Amino acid sequence: MLESGFCRMKDELDIFNDIVDELLKLEEADPVVKLGDPERMKDTFDIAVGDEPMGEADFRAVLGNVVLNTPRTASRSFFNQLFGGRNPVATLGELLSVMLNISMYTYKVGGPHVGIETELVQQICKRIGYDKEGSGGTFAPGGSMSNFMSVIMARDAYDAEIKNMGMRKQLVIYTSQEAHYSIAKNATFAGIGKENVRYLPVNDLGQMETDLLDKWVAEDKAKGLHPFLINATAATTVLGAFDDIDALADIAKKHNIWLHVDGAYGGSAIFSKKHKHLLKGIEKCDSFTINPHKMLGTPLSCSIIVTKHKQQLIESFSQDASYLYQGDGDDYNLGKTSLQCGRRNDAFKFWTLWKSVGTKGLEKIVDQLYHLADVARDYVKKHPDYTLYSFEESTAVCFNYKDISPEKICNALSEEGKLMVGHGSFKEDTFVRFVTVNSRLTEADIIRFFERFEKFAESYDF
Q1: Are strands 303-307 and 287-290 parallel, antiparallel or unpaired?
Q2: CATH topology for 93-352?
Q3: What percent of the chain has pLDDT over 90?
Q4: Beta strands in 195-246 (DSSP E)
Q5: Whole-angstrom Cα distance, residue 200 to residue 183?
């Protein structure tokens, strides 16, 4: 039986290798998939499941058809989201994690991977400047949930009885108009309410106007409300702007408010000597989110939240379960400080990357992405048919070409299978948003994007 099962797994891996081989070839030869009509998806890809098993040859064909017609986010023509590319060593870690299929809540199940996750958390805390003994963290299923954990910790730090008695006060969150949309959702999840989120205006660079914050907090206190959390953003979704953490930390300290820094996008700058100044004051924040699946090219999802208040992490998320936690101590039972119970091993793929290239290698990845953004910005600046909307030291390059609608050209490029690039808006302007977060990109890829973009713009009837 064991030999039979082993051989069966080898058969599936053969199918995997065949499909991946074809996928890698297509990413080079035909990098953008034309998706077609979503209403016809079930018929096109034979998605429906039935009572009878499918024959091996038919199954293999259907599987290949689905995989090879999925958007190719690892191709060098994908600039549409805040993730992209495929780091080979990190992907190896992900594939091995799938084979191991462990859960990260106890040492008995996770084994050495518990130590790996703990090491990564400690190293992130060290790079931020947190005290080793007092700080801690965990992996969460994405940046939105990492930010949600910050809301819960801030809420419980403000009023420890909330987790037992429920909400009895009207709490208030402060963030910028350009903050991630999860802030409003998380206010709902945590019982705070969307109406109790205050959105500070931003300056022309997309940074929160901190001079208004102190005034708003004081006014809310005078009304009998309870300010408890300031959410700063380290690289906003559209412009890639970094809020002034130093200034926000001063206000947070004055009013005894928890300061969280959402670095899901730009937090990887902690690895760069050249760009870490964008996070000046980061050591003063109470919690911090970083997503290695964005700028560091680790497969989705890989999101980490750390805090200088490890005890608060325990108090907000620990729950005894005698059937689960049976020895080894809380430091090795990571379910005591996580949002979930059953939790996939998201640490191993980041560890394989970090272990293989070292901290210096991570720094090179980050610096290269900023350099490629500079290449793109310089190209836009030098060509009179472009209008530039973004600024230096951002991996989001925002522009318009001639008088062509950014929405129309981005949609047409995708529909025709030419390029994957998105559009965004800031204040009164809408523009193409080109992001350099794929570590496989070269300067030639950046120039090639603009050449193809221009050629398409001239040939398409807008």
Answers
A1: antiparallel
A2: Aspartate Aminotransferase; domain 2 (3.40.640)
A3: 80
A4: 197-200, 226-233
A5: 13
